[in-house]
Amino acid sequence: MALGGSSAVHVQTSTVSAPTLPRQPSNVTVHPAALFSILDHYLRRSDEQPRVIGTLLGTRSPDGTVVHVRSSFAVLHSETDEQVAVDMEYHRTMYELHTRVTPKETIVGWYSTGSNLNTYSALIQNFYSQETAPQQAIHVALNTGAEEDTEAGVHAFVSSPVGVFPKPENCIFTPVPVRLKFDEAERSGLDLLSQTSTSPNSTSPQPVTTLANLDAALTSVSQMIDRVLVYVRRVLAGEIPGDKALGRYLMDTLAISAVGEKGSEDKAFNAALQDTLMISYLANLLRSQAEVSSRLALVA
Amino acid sequence: MAAPSMAAALAASLPAPAAAPAPAAPVYEAIPPSMAKVIDIEAEIALQVVQLDGMVVSKILKHAREATSGTVHGLLLGLDLDGTLEVSNSFALPHHVSDEDDKSAKSSAKYQASMLRSLREVQADDSVVGFYQATSLGAFFNQNLVEIQAIHQDKLRHGGVVIVHDVSLTARGNASFRAFRLTPSFLDAYKKSNFSTTSLISHRLTFSAILEEIPLQVRVNPLLGSFLSKLTQSSPSPLPDPAPDATRTAVIPPTFSALDLRTSGLTRNLEQIIETVDNYKNEEGNVAFLQRQIARERLKAENYIQKRKEENMARAAQDLAPLPEEDVARLFKIPPEPSRLESMLLLGQIDAYAKNLETAASSGLIKMYSVRN
């Protein structure tokens, strides 16, 4: 298209003649929420289903090399010896529903539980590639570790066609590195869950007060210091040989904590202390005023 | 106004209360005696505790994190059994930018209905048990929450719950989830939509009596638990000669964000308090203005009656028929008493902000002293 071309010679900047294929995804990150819903879907499968599949939603980096999987939803499918069927209509409906809440997330691929790749995987991959075109679909295989001789883990794959005449049921799955990615602000939620999973009954009462939380963190730090102390004492006593790397690391840590002059620190400390006390006083004052005000409304 | 239409949308999408327990299967299986005590079709066993599934925790966290606006909403799905309300799934509700019209309310209802249908197809729980709201700095008291919850408490089994998630606390390293429901006395006043002073007195309503808290538990199912322990487990680094801090790696390394000394967020908290106090002052001004107006109109009406009485007495002395007295109500329009709901909610908000500030300050103090020593 020549848009407002004033020069006599018009050179077409071609986008068609040299088709720049989107680059293959080389990295996959997965958000915990997506992982957990896959696990939940696996729990809710019916007995005759050996594995479950679903759609992965997420975003891609501008150059297409990194795929961020942000969420996932379950899709109905059935596998028999003769055929595999995926409920496409269901998939479309769910995708439309999801885009209403999170318009930025698009289809990036699909997941399945269990790590066996077979002909059906290739067929489903082919279907999802059409959904994500021109980008490549990724496949995330989540091993729940619930079956014998398997270890829990997540693997991600991209596919490429194979053979002289590419057929949908044949393809090569190439593994790509996959990482768990979450926002730092969501961190405490994950901590909460992992703490809960180690507590008896796998339940934990809520809400935890900030002070209790602080207490737990301080206790764990003090336990770590104790462990280091025991180790250092044993090394000094000559019971076990010291690790040089560890020693350097400890020295670095101690050097950091000793930084700061005494006088200026005191001043800053006192100023910060006064600020904090002031805020605490203000907060208390506000609360009592609010309480009084609401009581007065009842008397008036 | 965003709230009413959204509330209407919610109301439209909820199943009728009679349909909530759905043993619609034609063949009834006998309930085993061990379970007979805990199954209540009529929802007679009172709720003791709300149990939140790990997946829901992560979903709410993600939704709250990605939200562009201040508060986000979503529906909670699950089941109740023997006093425990198990929340096993949730989905986010689309954010309403400007839904003054009926159309978006309808589409929201349609969205929920088709989402529920879709979830049922993959064997997920599809009965609504409440909703969640994510806010920052503890300000969850607002009209919106009260309105939606009032509808839920009418329509849902057990009245439904609202789970409040605090984004700012979570960022400070303490993921906070709390479950609430409206108190009966507030609901009574709300249904009569009467928040005059007398009604407040008779219901003994202050902001602390609007919501009652239900104990909340977080539960992690064994599969998720084993997966998480796999993720948090540290394993030797695959590199041949790693740096000291990379000798052992874990997918989720331990964190110490609770020990962060910075007091970020305090300024924001203070700003919000000032804003709310300003709002409250405005609201109080409005109420006072209305009350003065009422008093003025009353005085006028009384003067008029007094005058008419004197006139009548004078006429009686002259043996004339007295003038009618009943047209006072028509002559003077006494405005209705102002609703105190808004100011009550604002007070509740101020209280919540202040409480938040107080906790932040006190934990800050402790951290400062522990660093000092």
Automatic annotation (TrEMBL), chain A:
Oligomeric and partner information: Component of the eukaryotic translation initiation factor 3 (eIF-3) complex.
Alphabetical keyword list: Cytoplasm, Initiation factor, Protein biosynthesis
Family: Belongs to the eIF-3 subunit F family.
Function of the protein: Component of the eukaryotic translation initiation factor 3 (eIF-3) complex, which is involved in protein synthesis of a specialized repertoire of mRNAs and, together with other initiation factors, stimulates binding of mRNA and methionyl-tRNAi to the 40S ribosome. The eIF-3 complex specifically targets and initiates translation of a subset of mRNAs involved in cell proliferation.
Protein name (Swiss-Prot/TrEMBL): Eukaryotic translation initiation factor 3 subunit F
Occurrences of domain MPN (ranges): 28-163
GO CC, one annotated term: eukaryotic 43S preinitiation complex
GO BP term, example: formation of cytoplasmic translation initiation complex
Location(s) in or outside the cell: Cytoplasm
UniProtKB/TrEMBL annotation, chain B:
Pfam families reported for this sequence: eIF3h_C, JAB
Domain (MPN): residue spans on this chain: 50-186
Residues forming coiled coils: 263-307
Cellular component annotations (GO), alphabetically ordered: eukaryotic 43S preinitiation complex; eukaryotic 48S preinitiation complex; eukaryotic translation initiation factor 3 complex
Gene Ontology molecular function, alphabetical: metallopeptidase activity; translation initiation factor activity
Main location: cytoplasm
Keyword Iron: no
Keywords, ordered alphabetically: Coiled coil, Cytoplasm, Initiation factor, Protein biosynthesis
GO biological processes: formation of cytoplasmic translation initiation complex
Localization of this protein: Cytoplasm
PANTHER family noted in UniProt: EUKARYOTIC TRANSLATION INITIATION FACTOR 3 -RELATED
Subunit structure: Component of the eukaryotic translation initiation factor 3 (eIF-3) complex.
HAMAP family: eIF3h (MF_03007)
Family: Belongs to the eIF-3 subunit H family.
Task of the protein: Component of the eukaryotic translation initiation factor 3 (eIF-3) complex, which is involved in protein synthesis of a specialized repertoire of mRNAs and, together with other initiation factors, stimulates binding of mRNA and methionyl-tRNAi to the 40S ribosome. The eIF-3 complex specifically targets and initiates translation of a subset of mRNAs involved in cell proliferation.
Annotated protein name in UniProt: Eukaryotic translation initiation factor 3 subunit H
Organism (species): Mycena indigotica
